[in-house]
Amino acid sequence: MNRIIAAAQFAKREHEGQIRKDGNEKMPTPYFTHLARVAGTVAALPGSNENMVIAAYLHDTIEDTDVTLAEIELSFGAEVAIMVECLTNVSKRNMVLAKKNRTERKKADTEFLSKCSPNIKKIKLADRLDNLFDFSLTNNPFKYKYAAETQDLLKAIGDACPELTEKIEEVLQFILVRTLKSLDEGV
């Protein structure tokens, strides 16, 4: 079986029953939809490779499921396991960091990512683009904090993929314009 298809099936099975926090209460979006969108974005990037697409499908498995890195390595190889480990927030893997406030955790996560390979940064940017887009369509006030964190992330890793950075900046601009329009309307 094709390794990318195997990764997609693995991710779908492991995230079964999870839904996106995208504000769509009437028709909750299966979490796998996010993974597929991120993997599709990564696959379309110039210079993308099979392991990057596989890691994109699996990027949230360590944080959001009971899957271990050893299982990922056994199923998809050491390179994919390393990529997934790097895409797992360091603040969730380090017990000392896990106890810190969000600002400190995100700073540590961003600092760690700044030292990762360009391919890992590209996957992270694709993930951030998809998350930010979902937030941009909600009324969740957390989107403003997430947008600010995104600007910090872009400063650290945005040079890895100018194409994705430009798209992220467009979504950030959309959030700003929508916010200003709401303020103008007194909403």
Concise account of the structure shown:
This protein is mostly helical and 187 residues long. It contains twelve helices and no strands.
* Total number of helices: 12
- The proportion of residues forming helix, as a percent range, comes to over 70%
Count of domain modules:
1
CA(first)-CA(last) distance: 52 Å
Give the C-level CATH assignment: Mainly Alpha
3D shape: globular
The H-and-E topology, N to C, reads as HHHHHHHHHHHH
Summing up helix and strand content along with how strands pair, one would put the structural category as mainly alpha
Instruction: List segments where confidence is low: pLDDT < 50 over at least 5 consecutive residues.
Output: none
Q: What's the main sheet like?
A: none
Number of strands: 0
What share of the residues does DSSP label as strand, in percent? under 5%
What's the architecture in CATH terms? Orthogonal Bundle
Average of pLDDT:
92
Specify the CATH homologous superfamily.
Answer: Hypothetical protein af1432
The CATH topology comes to Hypothetical protein af1432
Lay out the secondary structure.
Layout: H1 3-14, H2 31-43, H3 50-58, H4 61-64, H5 69-76, H6 78-87, H7 90-93, H8 95-98, H9 102-114, H10 118-136, H11 142-157, H12 162-184
Helix pairs in contact: 1-3, 2-3, 2-10, 3-6, 3-10, 5-6, 9-11, 10-11, 10-12, 11-12
Commentary on this structure:
This protein is mostly helical and 187 residues long. The chain has one domain: Orthogonal Bundle (Hypothetical protein af1432). Helix content is 72%, strand content 0%. The chain contains 12 helices and no strands. It has helices spanning 3-14, 31-43, 50-58, 61-64, 69-76, 78-87, 90-93, 95-98, 102-114, 118-136, 142-157, 162-184. Helix 3 (50-58) crosses helix 6 and helix 11 (142-157) packs antiparallel against helix 12 (162-184). The longest helix has 23 residues, at 162-184.
